[in-house]
Amino acid sequence: MLFLIGLGLGDVKDVTVKGLEAIKNAKRVYLEAYTSILTVGKDALEQYYGREIILADRDLVEQGSDEIFEGARTEDIAFLVVGDPFGATTHTDLVLRAKQEGIEYKVIHNASIMNAIGCCGLQLYNYGETISIVFWTDTWKPDSYYDKIASNRSRGLHTLCLLDIKMKEQSVENLIKGRKIFEPPRFLTVPQAASQLLEIPDRRKERGDDYTAYTEDTICIGVARVGSDTQRIVSGTLRELTSVDLGDPLHSLVIAGHMHPVELEMLKQFAVTPSIFDALLAESR
Amino acid sequence: MLFLIGLGLGDVKDVTVKGLEAIKNAKRVYLEAYTSILTVGKDALEQYYGREIILADRDLVEQGSDEIFEGARTEDIAFLVVGDPFGATTHTDLVLRAKQEGIEYKVIHNASIMNAIGCCGLQLYNYGETISIVFWTDTWKPDSYYDKIASNRSRGLHTLCLLDIKMKEQSVENLIKGRKIFEPPRFLTVPQAASQLLEIPDRRKERGDDYTAYTEDTICIGVARVGSDTQRIVSGTLRELTSVDLGDPLHSLVIAGHMHPVELEMLKQFAVTPSIFDALLAESR
């Protein structure tokens, strides 16, 4: 049996009791290590579980599943995923390959940013499509998600923005020379993402777009290390979020749509400038 | 400190290690008992935690928070919620009232249907706005969510439909006479919701709507008791789902939007009629 086990978002103790039991009973334990991270590393997990952990990078998961699946018809293999196991397409793909090999699987769910983002105070059923914001380079500045934000906001919906993670990047030189040397991990931060977002409306206007999805005054929320003891939540205008320091990864960003009074009250708790939310609350009543 | 603790979706062992520790250390333990249910009841939780549990119905949570908050400035109170604590507005409201009383709070996240629905194979970032489908009566058949489904599907997005729960309903007679006698709990099932959905396009056409959000051939997915050992997932046309029996509650329904091949492959595993998905896969390639 292949167990796909969500670890939640914070630290070692965010695993469920069911998940912990499955980890302790498994023949081998893999940790998917390229779509997300906890606030603690492999060593802390190994110590807490009392089990050796094999790090599974993209190559192993996408091309080395024979190794992961070895013996899984008769023994239990644990595949750990930060958040919930179905947060990324790559895990659905792993399940499909397991099924093809005649291996049964079981999922042990956990919190992921897709539902834990509720902590910022905006109601989950008021969110539209989730988007991903990637690191811009000097020559590559994709902004197709701008249309999705516009579509969400035109319906009054909030937009959760997942921020880019680069876990095992190669420099162009190392890539060309085929050297398996990797750059240190990089994580897009809330101020970086906010700065990129702030550039898009003008770029789009120059290209002839006749609508504006948001402005520098649009209310946004930055969150960091959700579920951990060092969790941070900050609400303010998009402009304000370009200069907040939320510390270590992971960060996520929300672009608010229409806000109900209860949502505004909650956001006010995390405000850079509370008076902005007092004004919005006065308007909404 | 007020601890809001998500219990996840299945049974007693879906609580996180962090959540379980907080429950064991709390002075009093409340279980919110009107927005969702686990596959096990209060007795099983009490036995597993080794703690007495106080059931918190809507009246207690919305009007009796003084009782819940008693002593919370100096002692720890645990407030348990099925799924994740921020699944319903009522919990955000509770947090705001705690803050007003000068009580600190901490959230221990867990899986909820909002992210665990990933188990059906449709990718979470391809979902649009979530809707709620309520029980229809002979005289009250609300269908405003039809426009939201249409809006999601016009953008190729999937729609998660949360199905109605009636936990402490009073009959009209008992309500009028002020008798606190409650009907047995009722849970909208997948076939009931599918039957209601199937009626709406014709009703809307009669009222002059010029668009169709879906037809009886639209692919839908029914799920039941997600995360438990008796979990069921069934995929098929909306028509097919009007006659599947998924057993005990809770049920949820998904109306698919545009489906990628990996999504179709996954849905095929749960199909009433696999050949329908073979045909869709052939088209998509």
UniProtKB/TrEMBL annotation, chains A, B:
Keywords assigned: Methyltransferase, S-adenosyl-L-methionine, Transferase
Residues binding S-adenosyl-L-methionine: L9, D84, G87, S112, I113, L163, V226, H251
Residue ranges occupied by any Tetrapyrrole methylase domain in the UniProt entry: 1-241
Pfam families in the cross-refs: TP_methylase
GO molecular function, a single term: diphthine methyl ester synthase activity
Entries under Gene3D superfamilies matching the protein: Cobalt-precorrin-4 Transmethylase, Domain 1, Methyltransferase, Cobalt-precorrin-4 Transmethylase, Domain 2
EC annotation from Swiss-Prot or TrEMBL: 2.1.1.314
Classification via InterPro entries: 4pyrrol_Mease (IPR000878), 4pyrrol_Methylase_sf (IPR035996), 4pyrrole_Mease_sub1 (IPR014777), 4pyrrole_Mease_sub2 (IPR014776), Dphthn_synthase (IPR004551)
GO BP annotations, alphabetical order: methylation; protein histidyl modification to diphthamide
Domain of life: Eukaryota
Transferase among keywords: yes
Catalysed reactions, as listed in the record: 2-[(3S)-amino-3-carboxypropyl]-L-histidyl-[translation elongation factor 2] + 4 S-adenosyl-L-methionine = diphthine methyl ester-[translation elongation factor 2] + 4 S-adenosyl-L-homocysteine + 3 H(+)
Pathway per the UniProt entry: Protein modification; peptidyl-diphthamide biosynthesis
EC category: transferase
Homology family: Belongs to the diphthine synthase family.
HAMAP family tied to this protein: Diphthine_synth
Record-linked NCBIfam families: dph5
Function summary: S-adenosyl-L-methionine-dependent methyltransferase that catalyzes four methylations of the modified target histidine residue in translation elongation factor 2 (EF-2), to form an intermediate called diphthine methyl ester. The four successive methylation reactions represent the second step of diphthamide biosynthesis.
Protein name from the UniProt record: diphthine methyl ester synthase
